[in-house]
Amino acid sequence: MSDNIQNSVLLSTFYCGRKRYRLYFHRNQIVWDNERPPYAQQTVPIENVISVQYNNIETHPADERTYNPHNFTIHYAERKESSIWRYNSLTLRHSDPLQVSSWVKTLQNHLQSFTQRPKRLLLFVNPYGGKKKALKLFENFGKPLFSIAGVDVSVIVSQRQNQIRDILIHHNLDMFDSVGCVGGDGTVSELLNGLVIRECRLRGIDPDNAAQDLPKPTLPVGVIPGGSTDTIAYCLHGTTDVTTAVLHIIFGDSLGLDLVSVRDKDRLLRLFASALSYGYLGDIAYHSERLRWMGPVRYEYCGFKKILANEGYKGEITFLADPMSGNESRCFENCQECFIKSNQVNTNKMEKNWKTIQGKFFMVSGANISCACERSPSGIAPYCHLGDGYLYLVIIHHTSLLNNLRILWRFSKSTYTTDDLPFVEIHRVKEFCFRALDIPSRWNCDGEIQHNTDIRARVHCQLLTVFSRGSSSVPVESNKSSCGLCRC
Ligand SMILES: Nc1ncnc2c1ncn2[C@@H]1O[C@H](COP(=O)(O)OP(=O)(O)OP(=O)(O)O)[C@@H](O)[C@H]1O
């Protein structure tokens, strides 16, 4: 932002209805206060302003719209509780049109300097996920806000699985400056896989060649929750509130999200953003898919059946470990850990410290983010950051049914810890391999089933740019008491 814009000062008195307000604009803050008691003052930073517009004069719908030179509206967002953002507006009136135009021009100039804000968004809507309400969610909460913000949104409602991925790989996207989706983790997964493969295609890179680095997609991504669990949206925004997610896209602020590639011997199977889980969670994903008609409750039903069965899966895990010493910070807005990584050249100079564990496991998970969601406010890897370049390998050895219930109960608490549970191991890793040694389970990869059991997973630091300001550091206590793990 240029110094001239930065230092501009405005001060006027306006009417809002019958109330008189003194309005200031200085150092990027809009402040208004009542001229008469009660003397309430409100401040809105310019970066929280969505748009500033003249009001229209009410005319016959057939007539051309004319604006009222005496009235204007400041559309802005304010943080309510914890991570939740809400839309608000302030309409002001002045008898002198010059006063109004000076405010409108100055504020609009400031907003134009936010060049990171999206103008032309390609938005995919998955009508099949969650409670099948994604389109309604967009129409009710997304469309009006994007219109106020002046974002031109092109909507594609997906018609089949993997269509989003295919469109992104094969179509010309030059007319868009951003892409987004309304859906659950599976929809986000289609989006990110499509974008990375597209970038490979454009740059002539073979994604199946593990020796080549995967390229970073150029388009930033917006994630609007519309699925069943919405772990990725929750970890990005600290909530699954749709309005909050839409406002995060409109603000245009972004952060780098790590992605993890999953390969078998010959090829790239897929990339994921939240978690890759084998055993208990893999089986839940597999069995619950056929019960989709039950809605999100299918996860509880399958989880309950699987936990009672208490099966164990023999396997071998080999991982490239990193000493986790002292790293118990959580990933919130303005995260220093992620910021440092965004400025670091990825040298991959880590000591090659491979370790192998063989055994019978209840569950093996590679978490790329904390995997927090409404029912598990800390997730399975509370200290995993969005863009730290690490995976958290959570290994739960096969144990008694009672111990399984203990771990599920812990996952549903915001004060999650496993230090006193000898059957749980957590390692911070860059890469891991898994080999099934007897009856195979499946992998649950961002909620999607992956049948190849023998895989190699590697993290790619901040490969995706996502619209988000991060979640608030004030944790929200879960108000649901059911088990958290089976829905992660
Ligand atoms: N039109 C469609 N018809 C059928 N399947 C679709 C369609 N569009 C997308 N899909 C697929 O639907 C599946 C489920 O979508 P999604 O993951 O978004 O919802 P969910 O499983 O209810 O939510 P979550 O993953 O957050 O639990 C994904 O595999 C996605 O690829």
Automatic annotation (TrEMBL):
InterPro entries: ATP-NAD_kinase_N, CERK_C, CERK_PH, Diacylglycerol_kinase_cat_dom, Lipid_Phosphate_FormReg, NAD/diacylglycerol_kinase_sf, PH_domain. GO terms for biological process: ceramide metabolic process. SMART domains: DAGKc. It holds the Pfam family PH_CERK. Residues 116-266 form the DAGKc domain. Coiled coil: none annotated. It comes from the Eukaryota. Gene3D superfamilies: 2.60.200.40, Probable inorganic polyphosphate/atp-NAD kinase, domain 1 (3.40.50.10330). One of its GO terms (cellular component) is membrane. Residues 1-112 form the PH domain. GO terms for molecular function: ceramide kinase activity. PROSITE patterns: DAGK, PH_DOMAIN. This is Ceramide kinase. It comes from Ignelater luminosus (Cucubano).
